[in-house]
Amino acid sequence: MKRMNIVITGHVDHGKSTLTGRLLADTGSLPEGKLEAVKAMCAGNSRPFEYAFLLDALADEQKQGITIDSARVFFKSLMREYIIIDAPGHIEFLKNMLSGASRASAAVLIIDAKEGIAENSKRHGLLLSLLGIRQVAVVVNKMDLVNYSRDVFEGICRDYGLFLAELGVQPQHFIPVAAREGVNLISNSVSTPWYTGKSVLEALDGFDDEQSLEDKPFSMSLQDVYKFTENNDERRIFAGTPSSGRISAGDRVDFLPSGKTSVISTVEGFNTEQRFSAGAGEAAGFTLETQVYVKPGEVMVKEGDESIKVSDRFRANIFWLGSRPFETGKEYKLKIGCAKVSGTIEKIEKLIDAQSLEKETDRKGIRRHEAATLLLKTSAPIAFDTFDANEPLGRFVIIDDYNIAGGGIILDALEKSSVKRIGVYSNQEIELNRFIRKHYPHWECRSIEE
Question: Which stretches make up the Tr-type G domain (predicted)?
């Protein structure tokens, strides 16, 4: 069955956990007896039952070794399986999203019908825009608290729709919901006879499947190279998860940015049947006919494919979370795919205030919860792609003092900065020259005689 990653976001107490818990219950996705057990626990403690408690119960099971992640909850419809990314609070959510641990193909953004559009509602809309998430359903929750008022619902749709339009985001759906009561979650409810659109589950099932990544050119960020010596096993396995396309045994491959070339000998998997190919999203390992020295973070592509960019400069949209400003002139760590590289701000093109959407162009730093379009320069050329062409290789995070402090998406590759030059001062040092040309192709080496 196909699988899709969905992120659920919204201001604190607008009902993310309740909606998630109710979806789990109403789609029959809970472990057997879990719903009844939580209801019994609530009754025993004289507490009213809340569907949000289901997530707390599943988190407790996670601590006991059961394979349900408190940040990633699984449920399924008749069409496909879903992984819901649901984190407890806006800062944690932002870091979860920006870490790239679970790439979201679509989003459900929740707004409390009674409280209305909050500051974080706008901030989350901006973040979704900057991360390039275009499949969005806006859920207006707690409609029971406003007596299922059509006027309240349409007012929020109008105001928030105009705000998102400024960001270039056009939600496919605005859905009136009472998550605790199950109204318009699985199917349409008589409580809102004036609403004729899709339910939440129908909207999710209508989102485009991310499997189209397999139709794109092959690319894989190299996670690591493993060697197993037990029983005289001399294989070197180049491991990673393809971000797009499909590769098979016998295909010739290039590694970027080093330019090394080899041929896929075998396709390996852990505790799997013998396989001869691997595609987007399928963790795999590969052995090569000709051994090459490449570092984790290099991108493997089919020989001759020029769709992946190699440069030390790119334009990006970023969202900053760090307690200290993101400053020009300071060096940070960037993580793109499996590559880690130092980087600095070359130029801030514009800053965007998350609340007012006003733009600034003359500041030298980016403060917490601000967004910007800027030019970044890395300490060495790296392989990447634009987000529109290849989401996994076009999304990155920024690390400051070992903490994820921001992240964003790559808009354009820019021309490389001037090449570095080193002198090779005698022809007797030709071997050093060859070594540098092989392992540092972005340097230009010349001897005195040249």
Answer: 1-212
